[in-house]
Amino acid sequence: MAALRTIIAQGRKRIGLLVGAGAPAGMSKDDGTRPLIPAVEGLTKKVLDSLTPTYGTQIAALNAELDKHDIESFLSRVRSLSKVIGKAQVHALDGDGFKTFGEAICAEIGKIVDVRLPKKVSAYSELVSWITGAARDNPIEIFTTNYDLLFEEAFERVHAPYFDGFTGGREPFFDPVSVASNDLPPRWTRLWKIHGSLGWSAGERDEVIRTGKSNATHLVFPEHLKYDQTQKAPYAAMFDRLRAFLSTPDTLLISIGFSFADAHVAARVDEGLAGNPAASVFAFQFENLDQEGAACGLAQRRPNFSVYAKDKAVVNGIAGPWELPAELPSKDWGPIRATYWGVQNPGEPPQFLLGAIESFGRFFAASRSVQAFAVPAPPASAAVPTGTL
Description:
The chain is α/β, with parallel strands linked by helices. The chain is 38% helix and 16% strand.
């Protein structure tokens, strides 16, 4: 972690961020309540609850049929039925009825993720502060599966330039050549919305444009057709960019809020690391290690994929608990440790903190001011807190 702080404090290394749904789920609203945007379980409940008055019969019947009850499985079944049953009826709906049902689900997802960034300092604003706080040899590249506009808002608040693949004024169009060539100045952050975004819509020529309206949704929604959809423009260009990034020597991709259970994204990361041993991925996970099976599976196959969880980590394919080293790495180790290790919730033992987006953002923003942090007093239950790998 001390070495990582040194790397991110400088502007020389090629660094990318992979941001998943767990990031906004770990953030607070202005009133202090959480989450800013619910993760999969909360999203599923909110969507289905809102549609129960209209589709209660179908929701109950489909829940009884499905083995998994997340929104991806649910939407997959709805869209499958819409394509195969035609005029026949299943659960009192025909094919067109299930098509309308699926559109209603997607509309509800769009409403839920259409939120504004908190007015106070947030993890997103701190990440932007880190990005803009150093002259860089290479641009920061952000790959996110999220549909929200939180990163866009964070960049625009401080007038920091970013490029999302679109260009133009009235109806900005997607330019795959600029995405592939990547020849804009390094101070322009690259923001790749690999599952689409609020504000994307189909233009007059059936090509994707950016409208600037949050209710325009041209998204890869969570369902079984996701892989097929991501082979089309502009999604294919975004995934090609991820592949190109990981194929570059001396590259570091850092993930937050991403479980790696999303098979088509995990497969691209896996392929990239297999083809380029000089690339590395650091996956910061929110749960204990035994609950992060998808990420651990990658770490066991690829020694250049490391997982850092609350209680343990996997480094070079080997899992182990966090432990206090016999000798401190440096005289500055205490203040550094305080930025990634401590008590997250009252009554809990000290643990690795960077799987939570707010600690993650603060770690990056503070990477150039280590001495500003005092070492927190250890809890009474642990006279000597555990430390670092």
